[in-house]
């Protein structure tokens, strides 16, 4: 069964790593331009978010990170197995990388580009969010691929 093949320790690790990567990406590497374009705030302005709201956001995001990791692990297992049935090399890391980029594009672009077309955020926000997802999905691939 598919869910028996998933490495749940890797799910836990990638869920936590997604949070770490997100913090580094949004609050360290791209902090000033991202916060300015995402929230319309200068570096002197605070969003005035309560501690309870911050904790709630953290809990929701970690749950979503774990769900994303489980979904990706399942897709990767299906992709590997499908190689035998459909005649592609399911054991090739390069092929798995392009499969991962296809998943990242298909599942994240509607949300990241939606910030531009529906929320009227800047293309910088789209670029930062999309690049985060590309790096995150690549991280997911590498952890699930090499975890023994």
From TrEMBL:
InterPro entries attached to this UniProt entry: DUF1761 (IPR013879)
Superkingdom per UniProt: Bacteria
Pfam families: DUF1761
Keywords: Membrane, Transmembrane, Transmembrane helix
Transmembrane segment boundaries: 6-31, 58-80, 92-111, 123-147
Keyword check for Transcription: no
Name by which UniProt lists this protein: DUF1761 domain-containing protein
Organism: Paenibacillus allorhizoplanae
């Amino acid at each position: 069964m598919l869910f028996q093949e998933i490495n749940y320790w890797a799910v836990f690790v990638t869920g936590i790593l997604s949070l770490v990567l997100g913090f580094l990406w949004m609050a360290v590497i791209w902090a000033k331009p991202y916060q300015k374009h995402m929230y319309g705030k200068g570096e002197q302005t605070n969003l005035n978010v309560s501690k309870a709201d911050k904790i709630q956001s953290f809990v929701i995001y970690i749950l979503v990170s774990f769900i994303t990791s489980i979904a990706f692990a399942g897709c990767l297992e299906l992709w590997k197995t499908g190689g035998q049935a459909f005649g592609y090399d399911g054991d090739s890391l390069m092929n798995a990388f392009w499969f991962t980029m296809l998943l990242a594009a298909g599942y994240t672009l509607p949300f990241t580009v939606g910030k531009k077309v529906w929320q009227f955020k800047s293309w910088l926000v789209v670029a930062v969010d999309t690049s985060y997802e590309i790096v995150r999905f690549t991280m997911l691939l590498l952890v699930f691929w090499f975890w023994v």
